[in-house]
Task: inverse folding
């Protein structure tokens, strides 16, 4: 029982880590034609994420792997249920990975233009679709007796989920702009700050709207908030951070602004996780079929073995992640294209 | 076409394209570690150029591996939901370990390897190189362990229609894990050695970047000879292990239709006229000319793997692999006679070997995976029962088409980038100004 809950928390933590870290480089991709305006500036924007984006994406792989290992039926139902959406996520991930690597290896403007575009489109597609998937999980899914998704592809593109997709995009845009504000200077840095403020306003507006909309489309997520104070901890922390972001941006305390934006994202994931716990997939046609941390868990032996792996590996991972971000700390420079 | 055929075609396509990348980077990572440690001991500008040039190629290949690698993990859930439900308790753990232990390591330090040359000390850069190579090898270990569990399941019991773990180490170190891990890693070392050797031969033939090419070629030959000799030994042991643990796959590999004592070895088979050497198969498998070898007739027709594909891919691997061993061995001989850099004919042969190791690795995997059919988990779960039942065939067709288009573009781009770098060359050193 306790192992099931620990793994629920760990999966949520990996999702939060992914949203914070890949959140900024997806955001940088989404804003690739908004913040940087010239060839030189686009090179700087890309240079700011080039050494780290790959490690960031591993958080997605880890979250997926953890879900597969700890809650196989959830993994199977969600991934096969969102089939075409997942394929488009993969398309976006492939396209942007290739674009980041290929762009600076060609000299012609047409080559660079092409990969600039595909980088922006791929990143936007991934951010949007992951948000739409989250929106559908917030609403719940119809499942058949075997616990498989019983709806159609088009049913996934409902207004509420699309709205959550837009909110996610705004959240990543805020995160990406804060990252660029922290990593760049001059004209580019100024524009990043302005953009971060706009993205912040968009995120706040969309988030509030989504919160007002949720009681009709995802009422179950509010049950816990009435009974317990647990959800109110991340809610209040998030309020504190989300209010700080624009103040810090205006005062050019850019590292703190990025930190607050990151904590905001962590809080969003925490709020959803606490509200939903222990439910992964709410079954809309028969509540009893819902996939929960208890009904979908792997055997205690597997969960324990993996917990040991995580406890051994995660401190190491965090340790060298911090080390590596320290190597790249400070403003990004227009360095030679490669070592 | 049925959803099953489409899903299998998609998995085959995506995994075969994916493997082209890590098979190079796993071995090339070791080459980089060797060059970086040589440079650490005796800094000089040729090592600088070697490290820069091979790191550049490594970067291109690594990006392809990352781009195509995410697909593999997702597909277990998207296309093989039945499989995920059945094996999640076991297969998920090595996959999660791969991400947490190996992928983080290689991806995190890759940034320093590729871009950090001017930011960190040589020692830190060397450590980053080492971590990338270590991460790549560890990730090979975990994924091969997971795949080996599909071949020779161990450390589990079946509860409520799914496999549950009873012994973590027995599942990880199941009867085929170690041999298959060594087989795959050594295969990638040979690949990198032939790759480096082939491109070095190209420069020598063109009379460009002589010192760079000579040193790279010598390194490739030493590395390649060690790897290929070990690979022949491991490959042989692995084949005998298959005979013990998966007799129907072995019978398909050797096209042995009838169970018999003193079984003959088919040296040449389809599509050529068969050449049989009496009793040799029994001896090679059990070191006994009269040992009994299980043939395909011991298994029900619906449990037999497709013989033609299994046998042909195995023999392609065997003969092409042995040819590579011969080419590397000849290189070692010419080096010993001091004629390595003069023999244009040898350099030309080596140059044209460039695609062969990739083919060898791919057909080796075809043998392993097709030879396991009709099972996705040997004798536990049939491939047809592993499919995502809720995904319509039309959607799989759409995604398959998408992968065909995207991967053609990706392969074209990779070839273009590698070719461009090769034509550009590693620079000509101090006399012409280091870039």
Result:
């Amino acid at each position: 029982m306790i192992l099931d809950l620990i793994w629920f928390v760990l999966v949520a933590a990996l999702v939060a880590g992914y949203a914070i870290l890949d959140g900024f480089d997806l955001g940088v991709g989404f804003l690739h034609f908004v913040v940087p305006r010239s060839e030189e500036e686009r090179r700087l924007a890309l240079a700011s994420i080039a050494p780290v984006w790959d490690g960031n994406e591993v958080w997605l792989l880890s979250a997926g792997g953890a879900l597969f290992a700890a809650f196989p039926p959830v993994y199977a139902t969600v991934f096969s249920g969102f089939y075409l959406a997942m394929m488009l996520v993969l398309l976006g991930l492939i396209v942007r990975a290739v674009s980041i690597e290929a762009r600076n290896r060609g000299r012609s403007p047409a080559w660079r233009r092409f990969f600039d575009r595909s980088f922006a489109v791929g990143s936007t597609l991934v951010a949007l679709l992951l948000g739409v998937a989250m929106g559908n999980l917030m609403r719940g899914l119809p499942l058949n007796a075997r616990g498989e998704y019983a709806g159609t592809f088009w049913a996934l593109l409902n207004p509420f989920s699309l709205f959550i997709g837009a909110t996610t995009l705004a959240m990543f845009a805020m995160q990406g702009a804060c990252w660029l504000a922290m990593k760049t200077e001059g004209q580019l840095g100024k524009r990043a700050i302005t953009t971060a403020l706009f993205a912040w306003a968009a995120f706040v507006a969309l988030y509030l709207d989504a919160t007002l909309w949720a009681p009709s489309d995802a009422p179950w997520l509010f049950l816990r908030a009435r009974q317990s104070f647990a959800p109110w901890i991340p809610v209040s922390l998030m309020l504190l951070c989300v209010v700080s972001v624009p103040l810090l941006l205006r005062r050019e305390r850019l590292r703190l602004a990025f930190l607050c934006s990151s904590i905001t994202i962590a809080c969003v994931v925490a709020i959803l996780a606490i509200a939903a716990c222990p439910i992964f997939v709410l079954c809309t046609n028969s509540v009893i079929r819902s996939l929960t941390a208890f009904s979908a868990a792997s055997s205690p032996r597997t969960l324990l073995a993996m917990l040991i792996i995580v406890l051994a590996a995660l401190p190491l991972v965090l340790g060298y992640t911090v080390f590596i971000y320290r190597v790249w700390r400070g403003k990004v420079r227009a360095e030679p294209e490669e070592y | 076409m049925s959803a099953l055929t489409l899903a299998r075609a998609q998995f085959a396509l995506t995994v075969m394209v994916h493997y082209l990348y890590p098979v190079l980077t796993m071995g090339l990572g070791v080459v980089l570690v060797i060059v970086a440690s040589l440079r650490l001991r005796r800094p000089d500008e040729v090592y600088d150029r070697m490290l820069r040039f091979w790191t550049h190629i490594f970067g291109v290949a690594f990006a392809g591996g990352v781009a195509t690698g995410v697909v593999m993990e997702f597909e277990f859930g998207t296309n093989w939901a039945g499989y995920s439900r059945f094996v999640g308790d076991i297969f998920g753990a090595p996959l999660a370990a791969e991400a947490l232990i190996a992928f983080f390591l290689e991806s995190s330090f890759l940034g320093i390897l590729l871009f950090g040359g001017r930011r960190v000390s040589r020692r830190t850069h060397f450590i980053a190189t080492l971590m990338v190579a270590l991460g790549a090898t560890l990730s090979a270990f975990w994924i091969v362990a997971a795949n080996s569990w599909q071949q020779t399941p161990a450390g589990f019991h079946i509860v409520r229609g799914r496999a549950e773990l009873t012994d973590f180490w027995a599942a990880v170190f199941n009867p085929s894990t170690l041999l298959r891990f060594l087989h795959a890693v050594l295969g990638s070392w040979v690949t990198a050695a032939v790759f480096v050797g082939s491109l070095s031969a190209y420069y020598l033939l063109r009379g460009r970047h002589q010192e760079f090419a000579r040193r790279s070629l010598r390194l490739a030959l030493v590395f390649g000879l060690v790897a290929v000799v070990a690979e022949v030994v491991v490959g042989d042991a692995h084949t005998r292990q298959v005979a013990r643990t998966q007799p129907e796959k072995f019978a398909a590999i050797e096209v042995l239709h009838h169970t018999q004592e003193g079984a003959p070895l088919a040296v040449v088979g389809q599509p050529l006229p068969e050449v049989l050497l009496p009793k040799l198969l029994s001896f090679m498998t059990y070191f006994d000319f009269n040992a009994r070898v299980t043939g395909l007739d011991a298994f029900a027709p619906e449990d037999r793997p497709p013989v033609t594909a299994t046998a042909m891919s195995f023999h392609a691997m065997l003969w092409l692999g042995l040819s590579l061993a011969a080419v590397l061995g000849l290189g070692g001989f010419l080096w010993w006679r001091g004629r390595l850099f003069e023999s244009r004919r040898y350099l030309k042969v080596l140059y044209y070997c460039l695609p062969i190791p990739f083919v060898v690795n791919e057909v080796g995997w075809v043998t392993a995976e097709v030879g396991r059919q009709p099972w996705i988990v040997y004798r536990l779960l049939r491939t047809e029962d592993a499919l995502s039942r809720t995904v319509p065939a039309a959607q799989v067709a759409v995604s398959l088409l998408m992968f065909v288009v995207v991967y053609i573009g990706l392969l074209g781009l990779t070839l273009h980038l590698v070719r461009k770098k090769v034509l550009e060359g590693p620079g000509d050193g101090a006399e012409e100004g280091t870039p």
